[in-house]
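User: Write out your own:

AI:
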Amino acid sequence: MRTFLERDIPRLGFSIPAGILDDLWRMLAHTHGQLLNSSKFGAALGVSHTTVRSYLNLLTQTFMVRTLEPLVANVKKRVVKSPKVYVRDSGILHALQEIRDERDLLWATRSMAAPGWALLSRILSPRSQTGSPIFIAQLMEKKSISCSRSHG
């Protein structure tokens, strides 16, 4: 991970401090599968929420994280408008969460999103892609989530 942050990112032409990007990546790992609060992350990192979003876009474009954007439809209910962010690789996820063995994994409360991510990653795999994006839809009052594939 250090090589990616310190060598690969600058070679791609980005001049982002490796420490800040590392901190953001760790924060994303600890909120794996939850709604993104870029303002909260920005306050913790000492940067603006728009900077957090640009760093998140970099991690998404380099295939380190996957962002499921919300489906913003014209509905009369309060709909969540924040994306959910997942660390793509389970090994990197567990390293960022400092999970070193099976016991740590069993006690890690944040890893509970991992089984859901395993299912989503199968749905989102290249074999199942039809070329149409997948969105999340979630009401503020409910903890359930539904995924929708856009057909147009």
